[in-house]
Amino acid sequence: MSFIQIQDLHTDRFAEIDELAAQWRADTVGRRTLRSEQVYVDRTDPTHYVVVAAFDSYESAMVNSALPETDAFAAKLGPLVTGEVAFLDLDQVPAADERTELAATFRADVERSATTASAYTDDVVFTGMFPNALVHATGAGELGGLLAQDGPGHTFDTWDVQPTPTGFVAEYAWRTTGSPSYLSVGTVLATVTGGRISRVLCTCAGSWDAAAEAAITGASS
């Protein structure tokens, strides 16, 4: 998320506020732009709450604010809090993220059909769920061997990465180099432990040569 709004408030009627929020969520399904919301309570003051609301952008947050249900929620919230609600609007500043960096390393490894040993734990586990096979490998060396067996290298049509709380997930479409070339499409789910990739689950919808790709997707060869 690239924009968050922090709400700082005091209340001794939080249960009622929570009910209002649940009703707001029910009433705005499919229209709200709020992506996630976390609520924290002060350990030293049980009437002090901080709400962290995440949005894709400031503009999407303004769309959310303009919903009539949001106005109604704000009107009902007023009598339930003590004093004023303080708001803090924050734009995300780009910063390093080990998960996206490791995802980039994994992609580079697939491209060259070899592994960067330092990016993986010594006992990294790879599981490949393919249409006609279930493949396992342990260690960066075995993973590199599988990549080399698949092809001397790979090029990417798609590599869409999203960090997760435990690692990253990627939607991919890659092609083996050499002749014939095969297209594989699927997802990669990786677990990151201690700054290195410790588990990779790769699902593949199929490995198609040019004729199979044309027949399945309607693409021209």
Automatic annotation (TrEMBL):
The answer to keyword Oxidoreductase applying to this record is yes
So which domain of life are we looking at? Bacteria
Q: Which UniProt keywords apply?
A: Monooxygenase, Oxidoreductase
Please tell me whether the keyword Oxidoreductase is annotated for this protein: yes
Q: Name one GO molecular function term.
A: monooxygenase activity
Query: What's the protein name?
Result: Quinol monooxygenase YgiN
| Species assigned in the record | Nocardioides kongjuensis
The organism's lineage is: Bacteria, Bacillati, Actinomycetota, Actinomycetes, Propionibacteriales
